[in-house]
Input
Amino acid sequence: MKRNLIIATMVVFAVSSIFLLCSCAKKQVVAEEEEITAPPVGPEVVIVEEEELPAVEVAKEVVEEEEVVETYDIGLPEEREVEAVEEGLAAKFEGKSIYFDFDKSFIKPEYRPVLEEKAALLKDNPDIHVRIEGNCDERGTNEYNIALGERRANSAKSFLVSLGISPDRVETISYGEERPLFLGHDEDSWSKNRRDDFLIIGE
Output
């Protein structure tokens, strides 16, 4: 009887020991799994985020930096400024012609303000020289129209000189009927061909 009780006690103890050992092992395995699968902390998180940045965003940042570097105002070079001034002066001086009556060379009253404006430009720019080109309509002989064109150019020059412009700065030429602006054979075309043109020729 005692023997059976001892055996039973030993069996219970053995089973209990096995159960306890299994429980401890299971806890250790779980603890190890939890420790292995735990998310990384500290600087490693930052490294993962930097590696996962989309390539498109990185390229966009590079483009934006390049645009900032290349965006600047170079200004206007000095030689271009001089050219702009000269072009503006030429447009003002050369932009208006004066016109004459048939077979006449005197300055009509309505064109005197035009010559006064040109004289003012010459006074403001004392280094420039100009040419006055006399023209005629197609009527008359070539020789007569050459002489008439010369008288018209000289009339404009004399007017400028009377306003204080040095005659050495103004030269004249006559093209007669050789340079018509309008090719019609009527008074409207002829009236536009009887003219003086003005040209800046240098300093």
Summary: The chain is about 60% helix and 10% strand. Strands lie at 98-99, 129-135, 170-176, 195-202. The first helix runs from residue 2 to 37.
